[in-house]
Design a protein that fits this description.
globular, 12 strands, alpha/beta, Rossmann fold
Length: 268
């Protein structure tokens, strides 16, 4: 049984830019739960000490870059989905023991379905990046029927390891152009665009008619998504994913559905 959370904390480095507190605190207020969701900037070398402190306090929360894989490695138990992804973004305690889940997968799945609808079942996905967010994307794609994913990453060894874990849906592209050749959906799973207006994939390389899905989010739309939409592509950034993964996390902590409408209103 989940220990009732005494605190809710987002662990990251850096983490001040996160808008998760806005959506989670809106959900807490709507549910009448007397907790405040907060952020905590934790350098990697301090993670073990912070997790021990939070365990003693009976806290629960989320993990973001760069801690998702590290938190997974420190959990006493992982849900099957977190084990499949190899990364944790949602954690809590059971009898004082750290437990991890991955609600990013559900967030990716919901956002991709909203973007592509029935086309998702036959999608050809160009996935840029090979970290924890990319793994969540691949785990979601296993739900999409005959979808196939071509992974491109600057460090080829990371792409190859990731493709091997998801060999039923994934293959490695030797170049960005190869990944994009037949793509109907182009996904950014890198941090590019999080703190600047960088484009992870040049618009001129994206096939006509392909949709664009940026797992990065900002308080306003990412520059890449805005430019892609102006160029005629269907496009979505990570905001929908953020809200949905947060809603799923809320359900894990409290055993009930949050007010998603309140969470969306908090983004305005």
């Amino acid at each position: 049984m989940i220990d009732p959370p005494t605190r809710l904390v987002l662990l990251g480095h850096p983490v001040a830019h996160s808008i998760s507190p806005r959506i989670q605190n809106a959900a807490l207020r709507s549910a009448g739960i007397a907790l405040t969701y907060e952020t905590r900037d934790v350098p990697p070398e301090s993670l073990d000490a912070v997790l021990a402190e939070l365990a003693a306090e009976g806290a629960a929360g989320n993990a973001t870059i760069p801690h998702k894989e590290a938190v997974a490695a420190r959990c006493s138990r992982l849900t099957p989905l977190a084990e499949r992804v190899g990364a944790v973004n949602t954690w809590w305690h059971e009898d004082g023991r750290l437990v991890g889940d991955n609600t990013d997968v559900g967030g990716v799945d919901a956002s991709a379905r909203a973007l592509l609808g029935d086309e998702l079942s036959s999608a050809r996905v160009a996935l840029v990046g090979a970290g924890g967010s990319a793994a969540a994307m691949l785990a979601a794609s296993e739900r999409w029927g005959a979808a196939r994913v071509s992974i491109y990453n600057r460090h080829m060894d990371r792409a190859e390891r990731l493709a091997a874990r998801f060999s039923g849906v994934a293959e490695v592209a030797r170049s960005l152009s190869d990944a994009l050749r037949e793509a109907t959906l182009v996904v950014n799973a890198t941090p590019i665009g999080m703190r600047d207006d960088g484009h992870p994939v040049p618009l001129g390389l994206i096939p006509p008619g392909a949709a664009v899905f940026d797992l990065v989010y900002r308080a306003s739309e990412t520059a890449w998504v805005t430019a892609a939409r102006q160029a005629g592509h269907r496009a979505a950034d990570g905001m929908g994913m953020l809200v949905e993964q947060g809603a799923l996390a809320f359900t894990r902590w409290f055993g009930r559905e949050p007010d998603r409408a309140a969470m969306w209103r908090a983004m305005a």
